[in-house]
Specification:
- The protein is mainly alpha-helical.
- It is 63% helix and 9% strand.
Length: 65
C-alpha cells in the first residue's frame, strides 16, 4: 500500500501529461528554451560593457586600441 501512495502523484502526472500532449497543441519546450537562450545571448552581446584596459580581445587575438 505504501508504494502506491508514494507513486500516485507521479503516475497521475504521467497520465495527465500523456493525455494533454495527445489532445492539445503543447509547444516543444526544447525549441522554446533554445530560442530564449539565443535571444538572451544576443541581448547580452549587444549591451555588454566594454572591458577596461588598453586592448580589446577578439577572436583573432589581442588588438591594441
Amino acid at each position: 500500500m505504501g508504494i502506491i501512495r508514494r507513486f500516485f502523484s507521479f503516475i497521475a502526472g504521467n497520465v495527465v501529461g500523456i493525455y494533454v500532449a495527445q489532445n492539445y497543441q503543447v509547444p516543444n519546450i526544447k525549441k522554446v528554451v533554445d530560442t530564449v537562450l539565443f535571444q538572451a545571448k544576443e541581448v547580452e552581446e549587444k549591451y555588454r560593457k566594454p572591458k577596461k584596459g588598453g586592448s580589446i580581445r577578439t577572436k583573432e587575438g589581442m588588438d591594441p586600441l
